[in-house]
Amino acid sequence: MRTTLSAMFLALCAALPAHGVTTAIPAAGLPTANEYSTAMLPEQAGVVSWRTLAQVEMVQKGINLVPAFSKDILSLDATDVKLQGFVIPLEMGQAQKRFLIAAVPAECQFCMPAGPEAMVEVVARAPVKVGFAPIVLAGKFSVLKDEAGGLLYRLSDAVAIGSALPADAAAKPTK
Question: Using CA atoms, how far apart are residues 118 and 52, in angstroms rounded to an integer?
């Protein structure tokens, strides 16, 4: 029986077209999380863009790599802002006071969906419900210039102010 199953499996594999799956990377390269996020999260007036938060590069300083932030990012430091994105919980539970918000949703519970420029640590006033839909948060934005944990941004005293989806998209039932 085992031999028959093995033979059927090999025959099936041989019958599949080799050209059905490609591992080729487009000539332009893969999109960054910030570029990809605009397909899921259209930019909104009054909400800080993930493209803005991506204006950081890592530069060599001695033996360390340190972030070099753009003037646009530095101008946001210690100001009240709105951010939109996907909640990534850091603990178990349906509501979180401390979590990450990201430009793109996580693929699995063990994977970070993007690099540090596409995630913001959030410390909320009150627990925020965890879900799959993107949300909009308001709070005090901090640029973390010397964070040992690798995070670049924090939103403190944050409150959830609504869905990041247009009203008609949020109202549609899912199938």
Answer: 10
